[in-house]
Amino acid sequence: MDVAAGRPGPAFYLAGDSFPDDVGVERALAPRLTPHIGGWIGQEALAGTPGGFDPGIAARSAQLEAALPDGPALRRVVLIGRSSGARVVTEVACRRPVRAVICLGYPFRRPGAAEEPARFAHLAGIAVPTLILQGSRDAYGTPAAARRYALSDRIRVQALDADHRLRLAAPDWDAACRLIVAFCARAGAPDDLTD
Prior knowledge:
Shape: globular
CATH class: Alpha Beta
Number of helices: 6
Strand order of the largest sheet: 2-1-3-4-5-6
């Protein structure tokens, strides 16, 4: 039996550069997702490793990779990231074949800045099923703007009625988490999201 076909998890969550100011996103996700996944490793747990929280992409990627399990257990892992944390988890997923990746407010482009291919070029080749929940008023890229980038056919972009900070009401978080749970469950199915 394929290891990925069982219950998803654990989930590893990475916040954005504004951590701990954006801790509300993790507090909204964790209690809604934990009943459906095999554990939760949040930003504070990861930042508690030697070196603490470093907002640098390379440092956070190395920290996350060091925390991931080896062998078949890796195929159950779900990586979740908000803003720059989403960039980190997608970069790591390009090297480590996890079950699924969930991005909240992917930072495609800094507002008012020139394009930085390092932010998005790797998304064209990601092989892991990836769900991007993007705010319709996100200054770092709306869902419509996201579709202008070369994205792998493994990526699904879903609009949320939100800005980059993802200040959602409880019912909207409930709906977003239902999408995440269904996506992660389907990522372990035989068709593996290829419709």
